[in-house]
Amino acid sequence: MQMVAGSLLSFVERGQLFKGRPELTPTATMAGRLLAQRLCGQSSDLMDYDNVPTTVFTPLEYGCVGLSEEEAVARHGEEHVEVYHAFYKPLEFTVAERDSSQCYIKMVCLREPPQLVLGLHFLGPNAGEVTQGFALGIKCGASYTQVMRTVGIHPTCAEEVAKLRITKRSGLEPTVTGCG
């Protein structure tokens, strides 16, 4: 049975069963492992394809988890969605005097309190690390209120998420300045 499970896992890891699903190696690996466990009678768990984090590893990384703003509006209606956003300047950009308009964070939430977080989009250094950390919170049903009550680690890029206060709806400039 181990040989069958191993062969099946290899087949699944190559992405043969993932039409319409995230084409990511970790996703395929987890889905294959869960399938093998079900086939061997060790578990009944199914793969959860919601809120799978991903990152594009370019010189300026982009990471996301959950719904995009457009998906959230389509699913819940514009009047029920609140989007918090900000440009920020990471510590690495200060010494090199790089433009802070390159780094951007967007958190998509339900508008009704406690404002369940539906998605996080992060453009900047360490986006993969930041996205991975917040993915757990989003999968566990984190709210905007809980994120705002989280003490950020200074000076990290992830801290910027816990400082999001400006909504798109407000029309205010999303540029954050200083330590605040």
From TrEMBL:
Task: List keywords of the entry alphabetically.
Answer: Disulfide bond, FAD, Flavoprotein, NADP, Oxidoreductase, Redox-active center
Q: Which domain of life is it from?
A: Eukaryota
GO cellular-component terms in the record? cytosol; mitochondrion
Query: Under the GO molecular function aspect, what terms does this record hold?
Result: flavin adenine dinucleotide binding; glutathione-disulfide reductase (NADPH) activity
Gene encoding this chain?
A: TXNRD2
Q: Extract the Pfam families matched here.
A: Pyr_redox_dim
Tell me what this protein is called: Thioredoxin reductase 2
Please verify whether the record's keywords include Disulfide bond: yes
An example GO biological process term is: cellular response to oxidative stress
Q: Where is the Pyridine nucleotide-disulphide oxidoreductase dimerisation domain?
A: 52-163
Q: Which family does it belong to?
A: Belongs to the class-I pyridine nucleotide-disulfide oxidoreductase family.
Required co-factors: FAD
